[in-house]
Design goal:
Elements lengths: L1 E4 L15 H10 L4 E5 L8 H6 L3 E3 L7 E3 L14 E4 L11 H9 L3 E4 L15 H20 L13 H8 L8 E5 L3 H12 L3 E2 L2 H6 L6 E5 L5 E3 L7 H6 L4 E3 L2 H4 L4 E4 L13 H5 L7 E4 L21 E5 L4 E3 L7 E4 L9 H15 L12 H5 E4 L2 E2 L7 H4 L4
Parallel strand pairs: 1-2, 1-4, 2-3, 4-5, 5-6, 7-9, 7-12, 8-9, 12-13, 13-16
Antiparallel strand pairs: 6-17, 10-11, 14-15, 14-16, 17-18
Helix pairs in contact: 1-11, 4-5, 4-6
Length: 401
């Protein structure tokens, strides 16, 4: 089985890659039946020479590979017919801007696997960049806090080499005695928590967070049932919330009253209540001044996130009275950091972490006859048709949706 590590061709350029040189070296030791070819690239976070130094060939011709591994969408003109491909296609939610891509994948008889569809037997995703989104998102949040309050300055994350450099910069600042709230306990939340803990910011219980005052910065990490409650007053479990989100209402305002800086690292499902509404944000009790929205659902659960921001221009202001964008330095503004491709700012670390997950959760399936059904569950297309699991996309492909 010959795998190809393809060049990222989407603009703006993405410096990530499925396998770092070190990760690829580990992969060939663990799977000697596999060989790897690296496509020539001048944009990825690792130079061609570092792959060559590890014994891998770098080439402009990937036609000899069986499986092609990328990160972002592959331009239609670059797709090679009759190959297996892995990349994030952004089509499984019927995103209109990528319908032509999925049509081309079918027309070219490509067997396609979206990284987002790689799940275990319980349906949970096993690979992704969420942890690194959390790391960079928390860092960017503190950078926003410093800009908003004019009390410290941090360099932009994409100017720093790795996570160690981010933590080093954060160690130089003094965070005032504020309350920091983190929603989410998945990959994104764990990444953000890693930064908070690296800064030695004290974690406190929910009760203490809500009712005690401190002379130092503190944070609380909360999950869905901490800021949502059933409308009928029953106390059930997270499974009930995920299965019946329409039966719940947000209780987030009790946190918003005492929070200065909010890091949003939650998962938001269809039908779930908004975390805070535009009306909530107008309330005199709403205290939040800085939001790092890592989840970045536009016009979704967080009312102040009215658009995504960019790595180049990561912060904007939200005026809760007019419900419009204003300068984030305006005293009336909630400062919003809502970059939607945060792992791109930490490409080397993100690539190394992603490769470890891919090697653990995906590569074995190619050599054990897919014993755990990993490939079968993730396969979106085969022989020019959608697989049964993804047949719901047919109307989308046909242009009817």
């Amino acid at each position: 089985m010959k795998f190809g590590i393809i060049k990222e061709r989407k603009n703006p350029p993405d410096h990530r890659v499925v396998f770092s040189p070190e990760g690829l070296a580990k992969a060939v030791v663990k799977f000697p039946e596999a060989s790897f070819l690296v496509e020539n690239s001048d944009i990825r976070g690792f130079k061609n020479e570092t792959y060559i130094d590890k014994g891998f060939e770098v080439s402009n011709d990937m036609s000899d590979c069986d499986v092609l591994l990328g990160v972002k969408e592959v331009p239609i003109s670059a797709l090679i017919s009759n190959k297996k491909y892995f990349f994030f296609s952004h089509t499984i939610k019927k995103q209109p801007y990528n319908r032509d891509l999925l049509q081309a994948i079918l027309d070219k008889q490509i067997e396609f696997f979206d990284h987002e569809t790689i799940v275990n037997q319980k349906g949970f995703r096993t690979i992704g960049f969420g942890h690194y989104a959390g790391i960079v998102g928390a860092y960017n949040g503190f950078r926003t806090l410093g800009l908003k309050n004019s009390n410290f300055e941090l360099p932009k994350a994409d100017t720093l080499l790795d996570q160690k450099a981010l933590v080093s910069e954060l160690s130089k600042i003094t965070v005032p005695a504020i309350k920091i709230l983190l929603t989410g306990k998945g990959r994104v939340g764990s990444g953000a928590k890693e930064i908070l803990d690296a800064m030695d910011i004290r974690e406190v219980s929910i009760e203490d967070y809500l009712y005690k005052t401190y002379d130092q910065p503190v944070y609380a990490q909360i999950d869905a049932l901490d800021y949502n409650a059933r409308k009928d007053g029953k106390n059930l479990d997270l499974t009930d919330f995920y299965q019946h989100p329409e039966d719940y209402k947000s209780t987030f305002m009790r946190f918003a009253k005492v929070t200065d800086f909010y890091i949003a690292g939650h998962f938001f499902g269809d039908g779930a209540p908004c975390i805070y509404t535009r009306e909530d944000a107008r309330s005199k009790d709403f205290n939040i001044k800085v939001v790092a929205d890592i989840s970045c659902d536009i016009d979704g659960p967080i009312a102040s996130t009215i658009r995504s921001s960019t790595i180049e221009d990561p912060v904007y202001g939200y005026d809760p009275v007019t419900e419009t964008e204003i300068d984030f330095m305006n005293p009336k503004a909630i400062a919003v950091m809502a970059v939607d491709n945060l792992p791109c700012e930490l490409p080397r670390d993100a690539s190394e972490g992603f490769g470890e997950m891919f090697m653990k959760n995906v590569l074995p399936a190619f050599f054990n006859n897919d014993a755990d059904g990993v490939l079968e569950r993730a396969r979106m297309t085969k022989d020019g048709k959608l697989t049964e699991r993804f047949a719901y996309l047919q109307d989308y492909v046909d242009g009817k949706e």
